[in-house]
Amino acid sequence: MRTIHRVVQRRRQGARRAAGRWRLGEAGQALVEVAIALPILLALLVGIFEFARAYNVQQVITNAAREGAREAVLPSVTTTLAVEGVVVGRLLDAGIVTSTVTVTGVAGTTGNPVSVQISVPYKFTFIGPVLDMLSTGDNDPGTINLRSTSTMRKE
Question: CA dist 126 to 45, 98, 121, Å?
Fold first, then answer.
């Protein structure tokens, strides 16, 4: 009877050891899965933030072009410097330092179109350096040009 009891005990201990090894294997597998999935999820999250910021800058330059065009159509405004001052002021309020502002038609007569065009180079903060490392050309793949144009009739 004792020998049967010992055999059963040894089998139980062996089963426990095997189950323990199996659980350790599961923990290692979960760790590998997290190590694979986490960088992908973080890259996705950073990409969402990057493109949301680029969209925000696009909205700012669209509004600045609209405000510049509204300023340009007023009868009292006859120079492009006043319009450029309004546009650059709006861009500086949003932290956008580098921009190209083109104003056409300010000196025109009533009813003629006045156009304000803004171009801003936007460099991706986190994705840009990664794209720079992967590219081999002379152009900068981490930078895009955001543009907006607003046209109104002179009052």
Answer: 11, 19, 16
For the record, the structure tokens of 147 come out as 């543009």
Q: The tokens 């973080």 sit on which residue?
A: 42
**Strand 143-153 relative to strand 100-104, pairing:** unpaired
Instruction: Give dist(CA 78, CA 102) in Å, integer.
Output: 15
Across the chain, which has 155 residues, the per-10-residue mean pLDDT values are 67 60 67 92 92 95 95 88 93 91 85 92 82 71 89 91
Work out the burial of residue 83: count CB atoms within 10 Å of its CB; fewer than 13 is exposed, 13-18 middle, 19 or more buried: buried
91 phi/psi in degrees, rounded to 5: -70, -40
pLDDT per residue as tens digits for the range 56-65 = 999 999 999 9
Whether 50 and 124 have beta carbons less than 8 Å apart is answered as: yes
Q: What is the largest CA-CA distance in the chain?
A: 114
